[in-house]
């Protein structure tokens, strides 16, 4: 996330926050999702794992790792 500058928060859910951000070198605008892991006694929430698993299967230029 150090390559991006957060501009504003555009959404928030139970397990994460989505920010509008800009890539520092290219000025490309993106949406960054930061998953909250604090206060999770049992580890990463299963819904977060499910979302990451599904997104990793997608092949799209707007989804980056």
TrEMBL record:
Cellular-component GO terms for this entry: cyclin-dependent protein kinase holoenzyme complex; cytoplasm; nucleus
Binding site for ATP: 33
EC class (word): transferase
Domain called Protein kinase: residue spans: 4-65
Catalytic activity from the UniProt record: L-seryl-[protein] + ATP = O-phospho-L-seryl-[protein] + ADP + H(+); L-threonyl-[protein] + ATP = O-phospho-L-threonyl-[protein] + ADP + H(+)
Protein name: cyclin-dependent kinase
InterPro entries per the UniProt record, alphabetical: CDK, Kinase-like_dom_sf, Prot_kinase_dom, Protein_kinase_ATP_BS
Domain of life (superkingdom): Eukaryota
E.C. number(s) listed in UniProt: 2.7.11.22
Pfam families reported in the protein's UniProt record: Pkinase
BP-aspect Gene Ontology terms: G1/S transition of mitotic cell cycle; regulation of G2/M transition of mitotic cell cycle; regulation of gene expression; signal transduction
Keyword annotations: ATP-binding, Kinase, Nucleotide-binding, Serine/threonine-protein kinase, Transferase
GO molecular function: ATP binding; cyclin binding; cyclin-dependent protein serine/threonine kinase activity
Organism field: Euroglyphus maynei
């Amino acid at each position: 996330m150090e390559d991006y500058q957060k501009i504003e928060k555009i959404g928030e859910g139970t397990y994460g926050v989505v920010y509008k951000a800009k890539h520092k070198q290219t000025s490309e605008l993106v949406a960054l999702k930061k998953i909250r892991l604090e206060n999770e006694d049992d580890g990463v929430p299963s819904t977060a794992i499910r979302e990451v698993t599904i997104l990793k299967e997608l092949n799209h230029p707007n989804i980056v790792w």
